[in-house]
Amino acid sequence: MHGLHRPLSLIAAAALLAGGLAAPAQAADWSDTSIGYRTGSKYAEPFNGKDIAKNIVNLNHASGYKYGSNFFNADLLLSDKIDPAGKGSTNGAQEVYVVYRHTLDLEKATGSAFKFGPVRGVGLTAGFDFNTKTDAGYNSKKRMVVAGPTLMMDVPGFLNVSLLGLWESNAPYSTFTGVSTPRYSYDTHPMLSASWGIPLGKDTGFSFEGFANLIASKGKNEFGVATAPETNIDAQIMYDMAALTGSKGKFKIGLEYQYWKNKFGNDTAGAAGKGATARTPMLRAEYHF
Asked: What are the pLDDT digits (tens) for 29-41?
């Protein structure tokens, strides 16, 4: 239980933050909060050539208000012993990864329409990522701030496409060498990002959801090694179990697939090896409240 204390404390803090975002319901035009679970046996990590099994619990919140929208997600990732918690450990690594984005809708903020072609609106997005991982080789402590414009496409559901600047740093610690690396800032670099949730037909209960990130190289890493551009595509087909629950949008199950090349900027053609590219099928379930 001691190994779980820190990740669970971070998840509890994340839950309080999401609860704070959800609390002012009177101010929200819409709001959706969910707890999810996904699992797979073919996760990958750089410098580890073996398939890794992981169980992932997540807390997700999305809402819209007078001037824009909020998105928050916290993942608790629990690996099997193939991704060990430390040098010589038979316990699996634990990680918390948090994402927050706020998008200011320029039409709502200014009263002027920003519609053209397939674009129904334009926004300005800002937010952050951070993670903390307890593992054998790197013990990531990522911090990243993001900002840039967003195009909101005119589709059923939503499709948002953003061009974001990334300001990222990390301060890893290796249990193999016992070396703690001072916090290091990478080069500022761009990311082309898309996120979507699109119903598949009318009243079928199926939807196509996910995100795709194309991330440029962030220069040299903290060890002086050149980083590689990343491709991270995570998509799922979800089915609304309204027929069983009697309530639309409460419980969803589905299949998910992630393709992540050059994970965290590690070149899969270099020393990081095949573990730097993930091809991961997953089962996913969500409860919305």
From this structure: 999 999 999 999 9
